[in-house]
Specification:
The chain is an alpha+beta fold. The chain contains 2 helices and 5 strands. Helix 1 links the parallel strand 4 and strand 5. The termini are far apart.
């Protein structure tokens, strides 16, 4: 499996090139991000895939020097649990 990046989305593809997980984030006019969606294929559920996606998005956002919120309930809960991202997370 490989993780792929764009400026608004990170996704994971399996060996056949099928998307098996994705996370979407938007940036407002002030530069703050909002993680709006995390989705995982049923074949990947319970394997930590969604958490890896949120972590990848948080690391990407941190690398831009910006902050993020999370209107996605999964991402919000993940960021609340992972205090090491308190420097970028603004609920």
């Amino acid at each position: 499996m490989k993780m792929l990046y764009s400026d608004k989305r990170i996704w994971i593809e399996d060996e056949e090139g099928k998307t098996v997980g994705e996370i979407d984030f938007l940036q407002d006019q002030n530069g703050k991000y909002d993680i709006v969606h995390t989705g995982v294929d049923p074949s990947q559920q319970g394997q930590g895939t969604a958490g890896k996606l949120v972590q990848a998005a948080a690391d990407y956002i941190r690398s831009t020097g910006r902050k993020t919120g999370a209107s996605c309930s999964y991402a919000s809960a993940w960021l609340e649990r992972h205090k090491e991202y308190d420097d970028i997370y603004e609920p």
